[in-house]
Design a protein that fits this description.
Oligomer: single chain
Number of strands: 2
Strand order of the largest sheet: 1-2
CATH architecture: Up-down Bundle
Low-confidence stretches: none
Number of helices: 16
Largest sheet: 2 strands, antiparallel
Order of helices and strands: HHEEHHHHHHHHHHHHHH
Length: about 425
């Protein structure tokens, strides 16, 4: 990789634009319009919330959660080898582009989602998730490349802030189509949601061109003449794996991150479906609430970054995890709209903070002399993706068994408790 000037504001802004580009997927597809559209279109008078997927009957929300769990599991198992390949061959940015285009195209494919195309649409849904996961993994790996240790908290926060602003802007555009289709002469009530999915893919691919132009490539690992590519990739993976095992701070941080990420990521994915099933709020209120969460999360990311500078990353993470435990318990007892909105504001405050601080904390714990940041960051991303798999599978399985989504929410609090306890082990090794 060519020499990079760290803390270059122009480069950092360009890097942050990838969060701007892909966060539209996370909001529209994962959190708002898609879940509401999906639960609505897959509920019928004849079969209720049960759908048939390739001949198998399953609860609608359980199906979407299982599909996401599969996507995250597949990527979790393959990412260490994909990123080792990227570091070994110097194709880091090329693969970042590939995943972006896969994710963007899959979102555009969801334009064709109707009940009769359920199977194809679930496949597109899973492919979009895979594209998002791969793109984020490569983007995260640039953090230690573009910023010095003392700036990584604020740079990470800036990235998430850009993401929240970008996704809110597109969400508002989509919101207008969904709520006021008559302004545009739209008579097919499924069209606004399907158009939103197409716009997400277009937004994602278009704005990603900014970081693609600015971010540097990486230098291929020097190899012996005639050495097979598979051998080179395997050696790169083994080298990073052995170094990871020797870094005590990371060995203690990743297990803690795994457990509290189970709760965080699952809540973010299922929030809209939870609100619809428990309170039947309807699309306008749900989408408006998720927008509120994103706006509050901007402030949350910067507030937590500022507090971390004063008392340390781990202590702030522990405090935030305690708030998440309260949120899960509160969701179980949820009875009214006002309670839902209070919980939503709390989610916004701690969502931005915990995501931003987790990324920068891991970056700080990495050796500062590393060049193969992609492979090192793949272990962080794999931890998160495996956490999502466990979270979604647990959430879906409990709902499938009990037919009560409240029990699924309450169960998530156990993961936060374990994560909180494991963070104690990180304190004495904390360099953040």
């Amino acid at each position: 990789m060519a020499t990079v000037e760290k803390n270059n504001k122009k480069l950092i802004r360009a890097w942050s634009m990838y969060d701007w580009a892909n966060s539209a997927y996370n909001l529209v597809i994962t959190s708002t319009i898609f879940p509401v559209y999906y639960t609505t279109i897959t509920h019928t008078e004849a079969h209720g919330d049960t759908v048939t997927f390739f001949g198998i009957e399953v609860v609608n929300t359980a199906l979407s959660n299982f599909a996401l769990a599969f996507a995250y599991l597949f990527m979790a198992l393959s990412l260490p080898f994909i990123t080792s390949y990227a570091d070994a061959t110097g194709r880091k940015k090329m693969l970042m582009k590939l995943f972006t285009y896969i994710g963007g195209a899959a979102c555009m494919g969801l334009y064709f989602f109707k009940l009769e195309t359920l199977e194809m649409s679930i496949i597109f849904f899973a492919l979009a998730a895979m594209g998002y996961i791969g793109g984020v993994a490569f983007n995260n790996s640039y953090l230690p490349v573009i910023a010095t240790v003392d700036q990584q908290d604020s740079v990470s926060a800036q990235g998430f802030a850009y993401g929240y602003v970008g996704c809110v802007l597109l969400q508002i555009i989509c919101f207008v189509f969904v709520l006021k289709p008559e302004w545009f002469g739209i008579t097919d009530l499924s069209f606004p949601a399907r158009l939103s999915f197409f716009l997400v893919g277009l937004w994602w691919v278009s704005f990603a061109q900014i970081p693609f132009r600015a971010l540097p490539g990486n230098q291929a690992v020097a190899v012996e003449k005639g050495q097979p590519m598979l051998t080179k990739v395997r050696e790169e993976f083994e080298k990073v794996w052995h170094r990871i095992k020797e870094i005590q701070g990371i060995k203690r941080f990743l297990p803690a991150y795994f457990f509290y990420a189970i709760g965080v990521q699952t809540v973010m994915i299922v929030a809209a479906a939870f609100g619809e099933k428990v309170l039947h709020l309807g699309a306008p209120k749900l989408i408006g609430t998720i927008l509120l969460i994103q706006l509050v999360a901007i402030a949350g990311a910067y507030i937590m970054s500022a507090l971390a500078k004063k008392v340390g990353n781990i202590l702030i993470l522990m405090f935030v995890v305690l708030v998440w435990i309260a949120i899960c318990i509160g969701a179980y007892y949820l009875q009214s709209e006002i309670q839902f909105y209070i919980i939503a504001v709390l989610v916004g405050v701690v969502m931005g903070g915990i995501q931003s601080l987790s990324r920068s904390t891991y970056s700080k714990l990495l050796p500062q002399d590393i060049e193969d940041t992609t492979a090192f960051f793949s272990f962080y991303d794999v931890t998160e993706k495996l956490a999502i798999v466990v979270g979604l599978f647990s959430f879906a399985l409990i709902e499938q068994i009990t037919h009560n989504i409240r029990y699924s929410a309450l169960f998530l609090s156990l993961f936060f408790v374990i994560g909180f306890l494991l963070l104690f082990r990180v304190l004495k090794f904390n360099k953040a």
